[in-house]
Specification:
Distance between the termini of chain A: 25 Å
CATH superfamily of chain A: ABC transporter involved in vitamin B12 uptake, BtuC
Radius of gyration of chain B: 19 Å
Strand order of the largest sheet of chain B: 6-7-8-3-9-10
Helix content of chain A: over 70%
Number of helices of chain A: 14
Oligomer: heterodimer
Largest sheet of chain B: 6 strands, mixed
Largest interface: A-B, 25 and 33 residues
Number of strands of chain A: 0
Number of domains of chain B: 2
CATH topology of the largest domain in chain B: Rossmann fold
Order of helices and strands of chain B: EEEHEEHEHHHEHEHEEHHEE
CATH architecture of the largest domain in chain B: 3-Layer(aba) Sandwich
Number of helices of chain B: 9
Helix content of chain B: 25-40%
Number of domains of chain A: 1
CATH superfamily of the largest domain in chain B: P-loop containing nucleotide triphosphate hydrolases
Chain lengths: 344, 271
């Protein structure tokens, strides 16, 4: 458990290198493999005076590359979101989705697909992420409202998890209903959304998710010290000068925004937010500054690996990425549950 | 100086403390005693501003504590609670460093590192500074937490621990609250702990208020005792003034015998 600051820095540095290596693999392999020569020619074609990009090069620049970067950003969002929620609830088996955020966001997107198809509204760049955010905020708020005890107004972890379970089921059934009444192409989008997919990646999506991921992570880093204080309890954190209520609202809002925006473009991707902070705690301790940076890098790496797997297993087709992350995440989750005695 | 005036605090319709007025002078060790449910911990929480009483005011040096921000207050008020559960694997040093959180912005400076070194040595926890807090025994945890709490109030010592005794008096008073700090300690550490608390409390601008269950320890170490029962102050003064046979019989429902001792005053035996 002894982890001086310098060795943590080294750890984060090596994580960053691994992330870059995985990114390189992710842009190289897929439905079509690109050679390094082709990749560099594709990059060269961006600059004026170079030959126009070929079809393959355009596939690389307009599909493969934004997808790989979106994947990094979404993975980072989920990792940071997981770290924030676990720190806030002082419980290592919480993930962003457990308090309803992602199912609500998925519902918001589904509603947008169906209504957008019917009413021909909102084709602007921001409508889908806004719909997802609103859905995520409403569902998270609903969970907190219903989980609060009548006596002292506090939300206990058991109540939050169980209420989250119920609200998740509710929103999933609403999504099911929407996909049932939707016309075929919309229904297909909805199904893919609730399983998670990166196939809709575009440079516009990259821009929006980059803003929320980077902005949210910087916000999170600013509150790392206060989250550390929360590790020893809400009362103790108060005595250390933390306004706990304010901290809760800020962290919840940051989490809702980064998770909902990521979910808006990729659908529900489970278990990344749960597993990533736990892995990092095992190797480098529980300091939240380290965890936030580390979980951004590790989340990005793991989701990129999962996406690579999703593209390669049934190539040239692809699996929804949520299937891959769940298949890997569930055993890890059960392992964590059984390994330690968590008090609910 | 800490002054509480007409404090009443209730949860729902139940009054936990009723119309308490009491003041605590700096440079002394004040201990609150009383049976279970007397309102001792509640009073500490009110005095330390964890909860806000429905009526009454608490003032640190003539300033209402609810006028200060959490962060400001934390620079000169620290509280040691009963059992601290750490949710994640933190090292002992990381836990002690939390005491410095109110004093630095981003990262701890060399000054904070030096204070952490000093308090860890003072509480004999330097040897397991790199260990996971969660693997410590109850007594070790309590010592680490006392080190953390004192790190929060430790004065700029310019390299010497003397400044925490009595040489310098500058700026605001510092306020230390202890809520049943002896719970997990063995006899040796209880005495050691009380001696350290007493030494710290003698600084001229430090106000120390604690809750202790053991009447003998309270009588031996306190300069000033406050006896609570059913949310009210029953008696208030030195140990010999407060601990009389009749009062102990009334409040604690036990029959005391006073035995003279060699060191200081008397020892109580209960029947």
């Amino acid at each position: 458990m002894t982890t001086p600051r310098s060795s943590r820095r080294l750890l984060l540095l090596s994580l960053a290198v691994v992330t870059l290596l995985v990114l390189a693999a992710s842009i190289r392999y897929g439905a079509i493999d690109f050679s390094i020569g082709e990749i560099s020619r594709a990059f060269a074609s961006i600059f004026p005076g170079q030959p126009e990009p070929t079809l393959d090069q355009r596939i690389f620049l307009e599909l493969r590359l934004p997808r790989a970067i979106l994947c990094l950003l979404v993975g980072a969002s989920l990792g940071v979101g997981g770290t924030l929620m676990q720190a806030l609830f002082r419980n290592p088996i919480v993930e962003p989705g457990l308090v309803g955020t992602s199912s609500g966001a998925a519902f918001g997107s589904a509603l947008f697909f169906v209504l957008g198809g019917v009413l021909h509204i909102g084709t602007s760049l921001w409508s889908l992420p806004i719909a997802a955010c609103v859905g995520g905020i409403i569902s998270t708020y609903l969970v907190f409202l219903l989980a609060r005890s009548r006596e002292d107004g506090r939300a206990s972890i058991v109540m939050l998890l169980l209420t989250g379970l119920a609200v998740n089921a509710l929103f999933m059934s609403a999504i099911g209903f929407l996909s049932y009444i939707a016309r075929d192409p919309q229904a297909r989008s909805i199904t893919f959304w609730s399983l998670g997919t990166l196939s809709g990646a575009s440079w516009k999506a990259v821009e929006i998710v980059a803003v929320s991921t980077i902005g949210g992570s910087i916000m999170a880093l600013r509150y790392a010290k206060q989250l550390n204080a929360l590790t020893i309890g809400e009362e103790e954190a108060t005595y250390l000068g933390v306004n706990v209520n304010r901290l809760k609202w800020i962290i919840l809002s940051v989490n809702v925004v980064i998770v909902a925006v990521a979910t808006a473009f990729t659908g529900v991707i489970s278990f990344v937010g749960l597993v990533v902070p736990n892995i990092l705690r095992m190797i480098g301790g529980a300091d939240n500054r380290y965890l936030i940076v580390g979980s951004a890098l590790t989340g990005a790496t793991l989701l990129t690996l999962a996406d690579l797997l999703a593209r390669l297993v049934v190539r040239p087709a692809e699996l929804p990425i949520g299937i891959v992350t769940s298949a890997v995440g569930v055993p890890v989750f059960i392992f964590l549950l059984r390994r330690r005695r968590y008090v609910f | 100086m800490l002054t509480a005036t007409n404090i009443t605090y209730r949860v729902g319709t139940k009054e936990l403390i009723s119309d308490i007025s009491v003041s605590f002078a700096p440079g002394k060790l004040h201990l609150i005693i009383g049976p279970n449910g007397a309102g001792k911990s509640t009073l500490i929480k009110v005095l330390a501003r964890l909860v806000r009483p429905q009526t009454g005011t608490v003032q640190y040096d003539q300033t209402d504590i609810h006028d200060a921000s959490e962060a400001d207050l934390a620079r000169h008020r620290a509280v040691l609670s009963q059992a601290i559960e750490v949710a994640f694997p933190l090292t002992v040093r990381e836990v002690v460093m939390m005491g410095r959180y109110p004093h630095f912005g981003g990262r701890p400076g060399p000054h904070d590192e030096r204070i952490v070194d000093e308090v860890m040595a003072h509480f004999d926890v330097t040897a397991f500074g790199d260990r996971n807090y969660q693997t410590l025994s109850g007594g070790e945890m309590q010592r680490v937490n006392f080190a953390r709490v004192l790190a929060q109030l430790w004065k700029d010592s310019h390299g010497s621990a003397e400044a925490n005794g009595s040489t310098r008096q500058s700026g605001k008073s510092r306020f230390l609250f202890l809520d049943e700090p002896l719970t997990f300690l063995d006899v040796h550490h209880q005495i050691d702990f009380m001696k350290k608390v007493r030494a710290f409390s003698m600084a001229p601008e430090v106000v120390t208020v604690g809750v202790v269950h053991d009447l003998n320890l309270a009588a031996r170490f306190a300069d000033h005792l406050v006896l609570l029962n059913k949310g009210r102050v029953v008696a208030n003064g030195t140990a010999s003034e407060v601990l009389t046979t009749d009062r102990i019989r009334d409040v604690f429902a036990v029959e005391p015998t006073f035995v003279p001792t060699s060191h200081s005053g008397v020892h109580l035996i209960f029947d």
